[in-house]
TrEMBL record:
Transmembrane feature ranges: 52-74, 140-158, 190-208, 220-239
One GO biological process term: mitochondrial respiratory chain complex IV assembly
Membrane topology per record: Multi-pass membrane protein
Protein's recorded name: Membrane insertase YidC/Oxa/ALB C-terminal domain-containing protein
Length: 294
């Protein structure tokens, strides 16, 4: 445990120094959200008396369970509502196309004018449907807008606390476990970095199974995320173990939440249409096996 001052003083001392950091990165590492998370991490560790590695696990579990899991469930509800509207939108588009064609003949519109009127009115009608069902697709992106800044801020907070100038760096250096006893140094065994890469790749593959006929853009996006997941391995091998531990636990919890949200019981709780099968986990395993058996 760090001596002298409370968790707030310790976090302030740790936050003020980011060696070699300047410009936008330095500003981000020295931002209020990052300092707030430093205070949270130090307060949890000092208040609970848990070793640092377990404190990081506890904070990660709490953040993923009480912040991102509800948002992931909300995203699921929004997406299901949008999907349920597709039949109605298709019918609206057919009727609107007929009405526009009639009006075009009466008014002498060109093909370009007809297309403009069709698209403008279709957007208006679809927007009205989204308002009626309270399910604008942008709401489904709320998870990303919260999760990504939170992940970056917590990563920077752990990096700041792991620096030599940090008041708790000595505690982190002795606060690891098993093969990573020093949380302020990289994991020389590469076990945590490889775990980060493997879990993230597994998440990508599970997500890809939800897209039966992906578009070209979706394929490019999936390949980009696969590449980024692989790139995370050497990155995680060069940062303090506190970060690679956080990344590994965060990805592991995210994967477990992904599986949880596939449960028919959760779908019933969210009043969402049930998945096509009562055995989603068995089906997922079979789909993964079949995908790589080809």
């Amino acid at each position: 445990m760090a001596s002298g001052g409370g968790g707030g003083d310790v976090a302030r001392e740790a936050a003020g120094v980011v060696p070699g950091a300047s410009g936008w990165y330095g500003s981000l590492a020295d931002s209020a959200p990052v300092h707030l998370l430093e205070h949270l991490l130090v307060s949890v560790q000092q208040g609970s008396g848990l070793p640092w590695w377990l404190s990081i696990v506890a904070v990660t579990f709490s953040v993923r369970t009480f912040i991102t899991l509800p948002l992931a469930a909300y995203q699921l509800v929004i997406i299901s509502k949008v999907e349920a509207l597709q039949v109605e939108i298709s019918e609206l588009a057919k009727r609107l196309r007929y009405e526009v064609s009639v009006r075009a003949r009466e008014s002498g519109w060109t093909e370009k004018q007809s297309r403009f009127q069709f698209q403008k009115n279709l957007r208006r009608l679809v927007s009205q449907l989204y308002v009626r069902e309270n399910c604008h697709p942008f709401k489904a992106s709320l998870l990303v807008w919260v999760q990504v800044p939170l992940w970056v801020s917590l990563s920077l907070a752990l990096r700041n606390l792991s620096l030599h100038e940090s008041a708790v760096q000595g505690d982190l250096a002795a606060g690891g476990a098993l093969w990573f006893p020093d949380l302020s140094s990289p994991d020389s065994t590469w076990i945590l970095p490889l775990g980060v890469g493997l879990i993230n790749l597994l998440l990508v593959e599970v997500f890809s199974l939800q897209r039966q006929n992906p578009t070209r853009f979706q394929k490019l996006l999936l390949n980009f995320i696969r590449g980024f997941s692989v790139l995370m391995v050497p990155i995680a091998a060069t940062v303090p173990s506190s970060l690679s531990l956080y990344w590994f636990i965060s990805s592991l919890i995210g994967f477990s939440h992904n599986l949880l949200l596939r449960s028919p019981a959760i779908h019933k709780l969210l009043k969402r249409p049930l998945p096509g099968s009562e055995t989603p986990y068995r089906d997922l395993l079979s789909a993964l096996v079949n995908k790589y058996r080809k």
